[in-house]
Amino acid sequence: MDLHVHSTASDGSLPPAIVVERAVAAGLQSIALTDHDTLAGVPAAEEAGRRHGLRVIGGCEFSSAAPWGEMHVLGYFLPSASPVLEAFLERCRADRVRRAREMVTRLQAMGVALDYDHVLAQSKGGAVGRPHVARALVLEQLAQDVSDAFDRFLGRGRPAFVEKVLPQFREVAEVVHGVRGMLSVAHLKERGTRSFLERLKYEGLDAVETRHPSHDPDVRARLAGVATRIGLLTTGGSDWHGDPEPGSTHGTIGSQQVPAEWLDRLEAARPTAPEAVRS
Ligand code: AMP
Ligand code: ZN
Ligand code: FE
Ligand code: FE
């Protein structure tokens, strides 16, 4: 099982149906497709999943405000046809476009001759992000590789970095729980202290991503310990983006060996439908 994978619906390099094929080839029984700020890849992944006997959970990786800047929150069991959720995600994607344009403007001001069309050629209508800008820079021979593009231009604190307009965690929690989804905070690494996770739990957090390629065994064990003590569930995933890029902390699909019971527990704890509460 793998509860954190990306496709071309955001900054992954393979289309959703191919992601599913690769998951099947890796021997997985289920995956959650968790593209950044979009559910656009989910129907195609579900369709491919039905053909190949792989369960696909509709998911999304949200960006939210954090004391250090930005934090990623995974939403699970998300419906593709919720107007409230879709309106929320549409605002996030519009802000990604605003930001990508601003990054290009900053690059141009530095004398780096990148065009927004080069970025669009990478994102192809998916939720646009810094990896698309980085790949465009590489293709235009303005950077050596993706990690060079982040180091010189796009990383936090670098000259072409532009912040997103980030929702607060509790806004994400409200939208996700409103559609009976569940929330796990992604790749917190050493920032996942007990006090911080307690605060997130108070604001609606359901689970913590303990297994992630960027988590060494110590981090993993500590996060799992905190989760047990404060009553959070656990999730894990490879954060697979398709073909590996130099310097990336994304794993191979299925590499995190996430137990199937983790998904069962998450699913069992889903909020009850509002109708059921009223009746
Ligand atoms: P964005 O959501 O546009 O800020 O892009 C964030 C994505 O960029 C992350 O999900 C990573 O996949 C990727 N990323 C962040 N930092 C680096 C880096 N130093 N090198 C390569 N990829 C990175
Ligand atoms: Zn990504
Ligand atoms: Fe992330
Ligand atoms: Fe991710």
Sheet with most strands? 7 strands, mixed
Task: State the distance separating the first and last CA atoms.
Answer: 36 Å
CATH superfamily of the largest domain: Metal-dependent hydrolases
Number of helices: 11
Tell me which ligands are bound. Answer: adenosine monophosphate, zinc ion, fe (iii) ion
CATH topology of the largest domain: TIM Barrel
Query: pLDDT under 50 segments (min length 5)?
Result: none
The CATH first-level class of the largest domain comes to Alpha Beta
Strand order of the largest sheet: 1-2-3-4-5-6-7
Mean pLDDT across every amino acid position: 95
Count the E strands.
7
- Assembly annotation: single chain
Q: Give the SSE order as H and E letters.
A: EHEHEEHHHHHEHEHEHH
Broad structural category:
alpha/beta
CATH architecture of the largest domain: Alpha-Beta Barrel
What percent of residues adopt helix (DSSP H or I)?
40-55%
What keywords describe this structure?
TIM Barrel, alpha/beta, 11 helices, seven-stranded mixed beta sheet, binds zinc ion, binds fe (iii) ion, binds adenosine monophosphate, 279 residues, DNA polymerase, domain 1
Brief description of this entry?
The chain is α/β, with parallel strands linked by helices. The protein is 44% helix and 16% strand.
